[in-house]
């Protein structure tokens, strides 16, 4: 099967050029000046005149079917990866969640059972390490051999995922030894739990209290502490879902000192705020995630961080819980609201809106949403670039199309949209996953089970 994408503006992390892209089977065969390839040379011709042609998005932070607070995130690997494809994302990296008292390898097997044969696009795994002991540290080596080369830890959620500084230090020492990357949820969970308990004791149980009891200073403090532990051990560190200016300042300082510290942010922190958690009634629960949405004043710092590369990646932390029956679990106590928001379908569009608004360039859009996550998590140049030999994960994007985001039209398996009514310029038109059209102007043409598990190499940014 040969597919010719002609007359489009091909985007990369370094610029743009009008070019034709020839796809053979699952790979990109060539990129050449317009007209070099005759239409007759292809089985299918896609005319991309007036469109961008960019590498498929890589969402390096999703939570499909994730257990949390007695329930599970509502997107399955089938529904979540289908929604991702609709939004121009052709690869996700999800998290296998180790429960305390279980092994990393049995956890990885369990997540393979959930995902294998059920994904519409390609996928990989990170491993959440919540039980640090001699066995789990040894199993990290086996995970790496199996293509899982990054390990997430938590400074939050005492009694569930929380790790002590000593446990984090031990895991970082293993990461340094193996060349793997530690990913950190950096919030001071001990202090947060005390603030939350005080709020409830005082009768303050509304959703907005979730944000008020997780102040940005405690994200900044935990980020500083994680960076310090990484410096002591010599381990690379990746801060997940950074939301606060205080945390960004710590990352910028460490990067300025030459330390292997990286960070991601998410669209919700760029566009939403704590005001959303304060909506009347119980609607604020729809916006409860951790870290919480911040005051709008943080958004300018985050956009600046994307421009300066102190924020290297934009992921979603997609962890959808329905408002009915799931978010409502916390009606009488905000601590019982499942933490998480939907977003995997809209990341590429929301970041393109940043291009429209002049916050980032087209090249930076591609870099933060595709090329850098590919390099950060050992998938480049198989993924993240339109180049001969790379997988033919390609998005044809109409930069002039108008759309309004809504739960009525999205494809995520959740009963609300965090971006209800947002009017955006730009929309995904066609998506190819390894050379096969999975989204076209006529609808979804992919299939559950077509996605493949990706064994990943080590972080390609390490000094």
Could you provide a short overview of the structure?
The protein is α/β, with parallel strands linked by helices and 463 residues long. It contains 13 helices and 19 strands. α4 packs across α7.
Question: How would you describe this structure in keywords?
Answer:
9-stranded mixed sheet; 8-stranded parallel sheet; 463 residues; alpha/beta; single chain
Walk me through the structure.
The two termini are 40 Å apart. α3 packs parallel to α4. It is globular, with a radius of gyration of 21 Å. The longest helix has 18 residues, at 216-233. The mean pLDDT is 97. Strands 1, 2, 3, 4, 5, 16, 17, 18 and 19 form a nine-stranded mixed sheet that branches. It contains 13 helices and 19 strands. The protein is of the alpha/beta class and 463 residues long.
Topology:
Elements: E1 2-12, E2 15-24, E3 27-32, E4 44-47, E5 52-55, E6 57-62, E7 67-68, E8 71-72, H1 77-86, E9 89-97, H2 104-115, E10 122-128, H3 134-145, E11 150-154, H4 165-178, E12 181-185, H5 189-201, H6 208-212, H7 216-233, E13 237-239, H8 245-256, E14 261-265, H9 267-271, H10 274-277, H11 297-308, E15 313-314, H12 347-356, H13 362-376, E16 394-404, E17 423-433, E18 436-440, E19 443-444
Parallel strand pairs: 1-4, 1-5, 6-9, 9-10, 10-11, 11-12, 12-13, 13-14, 14-15
Antiparallel strand pairs: 1-2, 2-3, 5-16, 7-8, 16-17, 17-18, 18-19
């Amino acid at each position: 099967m040969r597919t010719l994408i002609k007359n489009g503006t091909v985007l990369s992390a370094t610029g743009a050029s009008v070019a034709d892209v020839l796809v053979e089977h699952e790979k990109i065969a060539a990129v050449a000046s317009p007209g070099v390839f005759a239409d007759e040379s292809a089985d299918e011709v896609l005319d991309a005149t007036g469109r961008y042609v960019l590498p498929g998005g890589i969402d390096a932070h999703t939570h499909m079917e994730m257990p949390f607070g007695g329930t599970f995130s509502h997107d399955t690997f089938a529904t979540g990866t289908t929604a991702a494809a609709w939004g121009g994302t052709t690869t996700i990296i999800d998290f296998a969640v180790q429960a305390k008292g279980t092994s990393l390898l049995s956890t990885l097997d369990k997540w393979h059972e959930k995902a294998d044969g059920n994904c519409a696009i390609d996928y990989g795994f990170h491993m959440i390490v919540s039980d640090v002991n001699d066995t789990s540290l040894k199993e990290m080596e086996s995970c790496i051999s199996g293509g899982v080369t990054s390990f997430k830890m938590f400074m939050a959620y005492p009694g569930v995922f929380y790790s002590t500084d000593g446990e984090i230090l031990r895991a970082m020492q293993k990461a340094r030894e193996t060349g793997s990357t530690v990913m950190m949820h950096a919030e001071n969970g001990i202090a947060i739990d005390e603030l939350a308990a005080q709020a409830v004791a005082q009768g303050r149980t509304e959703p907005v209290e979730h944000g008020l009891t997780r102040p940005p200073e405690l994200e900044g403090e935990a980020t500083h502490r994680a960076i310090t532990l990484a410096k002591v051990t010599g381990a690379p560190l990746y801060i997940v879902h950074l939301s606060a200016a205080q945390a960004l300042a710590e990352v910028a300082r460490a990067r300025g000192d030459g330390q292997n510290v990286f960070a991601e942010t998410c669209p919700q922190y760029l566009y939403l705020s704590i005001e959303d958690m304060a909506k009347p009634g119980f609607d604020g629960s729809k916006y409860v995630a951790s870290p919480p949405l911040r005051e709008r004043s943080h958004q300018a710092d985050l956009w600046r961080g994307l421009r300066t590369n102190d924020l290297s990646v934009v992921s979603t932390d997609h962890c959808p819980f329905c408002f009915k029956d799931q978010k409502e679990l916390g009606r009488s106590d905000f601590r019982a609201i499942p933490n998480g928001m939907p977003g995997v379908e809209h990341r590429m569009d929301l970041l393109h809106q940043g291009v429209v608004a002049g916050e980032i360039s087209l090249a930076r859009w591609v870099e933060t949403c595709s090329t850098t996550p590919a390099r950060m998590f050992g998938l480049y140049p198989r993924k993240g670039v339109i180049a001969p030999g790379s997988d033919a994960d390609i998005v044809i994007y109409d930069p002039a199309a108008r759309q309004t985001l809504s739960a009525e039209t999205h494809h995520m398996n959740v009963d609300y949209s965090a971006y209800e009514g947002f009017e955006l310029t730009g929309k995904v038109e066609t998506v190819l996953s390894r050379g096969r059209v999975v989204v076209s102007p006529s609808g979804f043409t992919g299939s559950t089970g077509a996605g493949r598990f990706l064994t990943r190499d080590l972080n390609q940014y390490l000094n």
